[in-house]
Each structure stands twice: as structure tokens, then as C-alpha cells.
Amino acid sequence: MDRRQFLAGAAAAGGLACVSRVDAGDDRRPLPKRRLGRTGVEVTLLALGGFTGMKEPRSAKLDPVELADAAIDAGIRYFDTAPAYNNGQSERNYGEVLARRRSEVFLATKTGQRTYDGAMRDVEASLKRLRTDRVDLLQVHATRADEDLALWGKPDGVLRALEKLRDQKVTRLVGVTGHESAEVMCRAITLYDFDTILTTFNPTPKRRPFIEKVLPLAIRKEMGILAMKVMGGALGSLAIGNPIKNDGAPHHDDAPRQAEAGMLIRYVLGLPITAAVVGTSSLAQLRVNVAAAREPAAPLDGPQRKALDARMAAAATTQ
Length: 319
Known about the structure:
Layout: H1 3-8, E1 33-35, E2 42-44, E3 46-48, H2 64-73, E4 78-80, H3 89-101, E5 106-111, H4 116-130, E6 137-140, H5 158-167, E7 173-177, H6 182-191, E8 196-200, H7 208-220, E9 224-228, H8 261-269, E10 275-278, H9 283-294, H10 302-313
Parallel strand pairs: 3-10, 4-5, 5-6, 6-7, 7-8, 8-9, 9-10
Antiparallel strand pairs: 1-2
């Protein structure tokens, strides 16, 4: 399937396209935007995640470069990636598009390093793969539950590198990501003055502490709040049409029940966040995601979110 076919609204994949009641059509306007906390920046409320399909090498089955081009054409103006996604393959795929279309997107990447020197090397390599001299957001990647967060702010720590890169205008903003522990994410954003936080929100009981603890603190700090694991991560096992079991990684979610992909996006957009970072493995799935975000009444309200919380928490006998 080429991008023209995608934008014309043809074909479905994996049973996902049938969940959308809204046709993304050939609308190339940017999606609605939201303010990224106190930064003054606005970004589209849906971002293309760099894991899932974007980390794969180009093949006859899936062309991530085509996927990223299609995302821009469909209205997404926010790309998220990381060097850890398949040893830089995600960044290389994005780089093919950014070499032509850098001005069209807000670009975020990450570093998994925790030292000054390590982070500097990491970012230099990322820029080469991304084929750009700047990003909009650099994030400390994958905060672990057992981290000694005090090390980040030492003279030889990762934050000194990111602050210097911000001073040099290699990045505009500095953020933090993590999904292992709500408590450690609260400690991280209390200890340091990050611009953004990318953490996990979805209607499973496992992610309830992030909504109840991390979200209110991030709001008080006026941070840009970004949602990941919207469909459970990896294989997207919370969404109808995807495998009910995820890939076995402890930070990806299985659920006794599934929901429509569009409903999961509408769930997180109903929270007081800036954007949902959602990966996809096909053009048809991308179309569903964009349609859900573009719908004027897209976000779920409080009672609707509670109903989905209850459904996803219930032990299932049938779907």
C-alpha cells in the first residue's frame, strides 16, 4: 500500500480499521495541538512513537520511512524515538524523512546514558542517524525503579550534558521518561526541574498509580505531560485485533480484556496531558489512530474513562 492509498482511506489491517467511525481521509492539516506545559511550545496531540514499526528495517512487509512520511501527511507533527530502539534503527528510519522534512515536525529523542561523557556521545550519534543538527526535546530515557537519581545532577552526570546541549541550542527542552515505578517518577520530577515527562497512562490497574500519583504532581509543576504505553506497548495487546498477550517484557502490559484502539487513544486524551505517543506497525493502524485523535469530540470524559477502567480491570470470560 502506498501513501496515496493510505490517505484515500483504503484497506484495513489486523481488524483494527473497523474500530474507527471517523475517516482520516485525505485531510493533511495538522492535528489539533495542545500546550506543552509551561514551555510555550504547542505540539499535536498525537505523536508517532519510534518503537513498534518504526524500529524495524525497511522491508516489503513494512516500510517505516513510508510510515513516517504518511504520519506527517495525515497531520502528525511530533516524532518520538530513542537510540535504544533496535540499536539506532528507529533513528535511522526517521532520518530518511527528516533529511527532507525536518521543519515540519517537533522531534524528540532520548539518551539511556547516565554520565556526562556517555550522554554527549549518545546524542552526537543520534544526530547523525537522525540527519539533523538539532532536536526539540532530549529526554533521560527509561528511569529505573532502583536508580540513584542524585547521580544525574552531579558534574559528571547526564543532566549536566543535557543542560549544556540546551545552552548550545542542540535541544530546546529537556525531559525524563520512565514506566517501571510511579514512585521513582515522582522523585525524579521533584528532584529536578524537567520541562516534560513521558510516562505510562492507560486503563489497566497496573497503570493506575501513574494517573493517581505522577499526573497530579506533573500538573502542579506545569510540565508537558506525554503518554506512552497507550495500548500496552510492544504488540499493543490492549487493542482489539492485536495479540492478547504482549511480548513478555515486564514493562509491557497484558490485559484480561481488550478495547478499540481508538478508544484507548481517546482515554488518554481525556486526561490533562499534552500528547499521546503511539507506535504503529502499519499504515492502516496509523489511519485509525489519526482518526481517533482528529474527531472533534475525541477525548473521553470522566464517567467514560471510569467505565473503561472497570472493563479493563474485570476478569474476562469473553471479549
